[in-house]
């Protein structure tokens, strides 16, 4: 998939593995739904790659409500990986055949075997079953959801994570992106383990485990009691973690955590990120992706720069 | 009955677009604020029961708030806001000339009955979508019998501001109108029971326990209808699954499959 430079502005194209993307802004899984465009507006898809909501082998009902609310400078959620299961997801996926951006399917699970079965099912569908030619370029392994009983354990355990990536490497030639949890003492060890086992990229951060109380009853507000915090509140912590990981691994890093502007995006790129993911900001502003891309170009232009490589990693030196 | 006129496709397009709408008039009574906005794109497509995702003015807020389309007149759309938390307080403080950023109309509205009569039941700010519904029903020549339940007499000026024609009010403290809940009011109103018994649909909006009580009241009379649900919502477009509620046909998103559901599909606590 290639997308040439648009106009005479700075070059925003980036590479994720062998895939060229027209700009560095992608969506955080679970915050943007392209299937709402499937009625004819797929061309309007604003991100350079699409990360659908995490799919698991079997359907999951998710957590009881309330599931999401606003906090000071952020948003907390405990959706609980609600999804229809991989079999039903295949139909949704076929509806995205005309998407102008490649798709990275987010896969979650409990045991490592669930990830393998889900990816095998997807591979079988993409390889033989479907004539839809859906542009799936890879998988994002969600080993970091803070709102389910299992799954996060793999992301926090470098050995288990390496074994998972190693196992999936034998199932697919598509890109494997590992979404890392920030709920660990040392975020670098799982990142290194993922790289060593053959991951093509890592993405971080997922949300931080957090809690919010009902103002009147002083009891947990969310149905799940705890949730995951995102939004501007976590940006400085996410930047530090992205910088640590980018300094330690050679594979591309997808930076996420409170990105709401071109300035935020440039800061993550300066900390070594190749791509940036937008989550909470797009919930509140559906026009945020286009605006952030334009602001990144403006930010480069203002500094007299022609391409993102000129700022990538400058904060690490 | 016919489905809401706004097409799925238009809802999808509206979800991706932010409209900047000037406030033309703002009026406050009984803790509720009525905002009239210049919003031709919303006015052209909105159906009763649909909502808009409204950005909170003033900065520092990270989620939009879902507000029912309360009324439509020419190029203008009215929203009714109850100041509850910091976000709705900020929305309620908007004044003429301020700009509101919003997306909409979103969601699926009330299927509309084409003739006869209908029973409209609102609990508190749940009255908001029923004004638009009453307008549309009366345009079709349907007789709309409207009932509202609020906590106290202090809320009654808000009910007046909502302006649902002919609305009959119950207050829980008994200071104005019938004393008790809106279901107590339905029980004591021969007209409501007669209409429901004759097959008039119920259109209900309010807190879930109230919807549950109205559903039981309707079921006891062999009546059915539709309820518009409230939920904590984040994206308003179906992406985040934050507003999912359990229904008789499984988990459903209030923002996408709803906010209006058949009354008998609503699962109550």
Layout of secondary structure:
The complex is a heterodimer of chains A (317) and B (269).
Chain A: E1 14-16, E2 19-21, E3 25-27, E4 68-71, E5 74-77, H1 86-94, E6 103-107, H2 112-129, E7 136-142, H3 152-156, H4 158-169, E8 175-179, H5 188-196, E9 201-204, E10 208-211, E11 226-230, H6 235-248, E12 253-256, H7 262-270, E13 275-278, H8 280-284, H9 288-302
Parallel strand pairs in A: 3-13, 6-7, 7-8, 8-9, 9-12, 12-13
Antiparallel strand pairs in A: 1-2, 4-5, 5-11, 10-11
Chain B: H1 8-15, E1 19-29, E2 32-38, H2 40-45, E3 51-54, E4 65-68, E5 71-73, E6 76-82, H3 86-92, E7 99-106, E8 117-123, H4 128-139, E9 143-150, H5 156-162, E10 168-171, E11 178-179, H6 182-187, H7 190-197, E12 202-205, H8 208-219, E13 225-228, E14 244-247, E15 250-253, E16 260-262
Overview of the molecule:
- The complex is a heterodimer of chains A (317) and B (269).
- Helix content of chain A is 30%, strand content 17%.
- Chain A has 317 residues and is α/β, with parallel strands linked by helices.
- Chain A has a seven-stranded parallel β-sheet. A four-stranded antiparallel β-sheet of chain A has the order 4-5-11-10, with no helix packed on it. A two-stranded antiparallel ribbon of chain A has the order 1-2.
- In chain A, β4 and β5 form a beta hairpin.
- The longest helix of chain A is centred in the middle third of the chain and has 18 residues, at 112-129.
- The relative contact order of chain A is 0.16.
- With 269 residues, chain B is an alpha/beta fold.
- Chain B has two domains: 8-106, Translation factors (Elongation Factor Tu (Ef-tu), domain 3), CATH 2.40.30.10; 117-265, Rossmann fold.
- Chain B is 25% helix and 31% strand.
- In chain B, the strands form three sheets. Chain B has a seven-stranded antiparallel β-sheet, with helices on both faces. A seven-stranded mixed β-sheet of chain B has the order 11-10-9-8-12-13-16, with helices on both faces. A two-stranded antiparallel ribbon of chain B has the order 14-15.
- The radius of gyration of chain B is 17 Å and the shape is globular.
């Amino acid at each position: 998939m290639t997308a040439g430079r648009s106009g005479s502005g700075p070059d925003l194209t980036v590479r994720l593995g062998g895939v060229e993307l027209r700009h560095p802004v992608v969506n955080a899984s679970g915050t943007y739904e392209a299937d709402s465009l499937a009625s004819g507006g797929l061309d309007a898809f604003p991100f350079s790659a699409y990360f659908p909501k995490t799919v698991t082998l079997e359907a999951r009902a998710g957590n009881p409500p309330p599931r999401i609310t606003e906090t000071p400078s952020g948003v907390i959620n405990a959706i609980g990986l609600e999804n229809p299961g991989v079999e039903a997801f295949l139909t949704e996926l076929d509806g995205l055949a005309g998407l102008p951006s490649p798709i990275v399917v987010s896969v979650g699970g409990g045991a490592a075997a669930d990830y393998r079965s889900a990816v095998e099912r997807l591979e079988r569908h993409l390889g033989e079953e479907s004539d839809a030619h859906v542009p799936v370029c890879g998988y994002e392994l969600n080993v970091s959801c803070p709102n389910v009983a299992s799954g996060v354990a793999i992301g926090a355990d470098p050995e288990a994570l390496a074994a998972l990536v190693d196992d999936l490497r034998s199932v697919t030639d598509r890109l494997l992106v590992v979404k890392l949890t920030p709920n660990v003492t040392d975020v670098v060890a799982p990142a290194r383990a993922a790289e060593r086992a053959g991951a093509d990229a890592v993405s971080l951060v997922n949300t931080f485990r957090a809690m919010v109380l009902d103002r009147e009853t002083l009891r947990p507000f969310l149905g799940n009691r705890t949730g995951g915090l995102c939004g501007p509140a976590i940006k400085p912590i996410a930047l530090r973690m992205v910088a640590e990981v980018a300094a330690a691994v050679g594979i591309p890093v997808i930076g996420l955590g409170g990105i709401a502007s071109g300035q935020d995006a440039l800061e993550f790129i300066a900390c070594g990120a190749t791509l940036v993911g937008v989550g909470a900001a797009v919930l509140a502003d559906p026009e945020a992706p286009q605006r952030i891309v334009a602001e990144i170009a403006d930010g480069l232009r203002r500094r007299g720069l022609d391409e993102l490589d000129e700022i990538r990693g400058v904060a690490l030196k | 009955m016919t489905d809401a006129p706004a097409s799925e496709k238009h809802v999808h397009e509206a979800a991706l677009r932010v409209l900047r709408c000037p406030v033309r008039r703002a009026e406050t009574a009984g803790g509720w604020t009525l905002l009239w906005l210049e919003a031709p794109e919303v006015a052209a497509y909105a159906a009763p029961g649909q909502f808009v995702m409204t950005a909170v003015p003033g900065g520092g807020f990270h989620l939009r708030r879902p507000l029912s389309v309360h009324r439509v007149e020419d190029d203008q759309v009215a929203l009714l806001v109850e100041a509850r938390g910091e976000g709705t307080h900020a929305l309620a403080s908007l004044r003429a000339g301020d700009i509101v950023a919003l997306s909409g109309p979103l969601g699926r509205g009330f299927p509309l009955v084409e003739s006869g009569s209908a029973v409209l039941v609102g609990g508190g700010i749940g009255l908001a979508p029923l004004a638009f519904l009453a307008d549309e029903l009366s345009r079709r020549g349907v007789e709309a019998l409207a009932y509202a339940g609020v906590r106290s007499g202090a809320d009654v000026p808000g009910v007046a501001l909502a302006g649902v024609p002919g609305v009959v009010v119950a207050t829980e403290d008994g200071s104005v109108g019938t004393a008790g809940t809106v279901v107590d009011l339905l029980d004591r109103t021969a007209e409501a029971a007669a209409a429901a018994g004759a097959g008039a649909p119920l259109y209900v909006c309010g807190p879930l326990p109230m919807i549950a009580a109205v559903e039981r009241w309707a079921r006891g009379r062999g009546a059915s209808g539709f309820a518009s649900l409230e939920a904590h919502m984040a994206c308003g477009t179906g992406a985040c699954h934050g507003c999912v509620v359990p229904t008789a046909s499984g988990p459903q998103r209030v923002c996408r499959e709803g906010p209006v559901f058949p009354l008998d599909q609503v699962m109550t606590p």
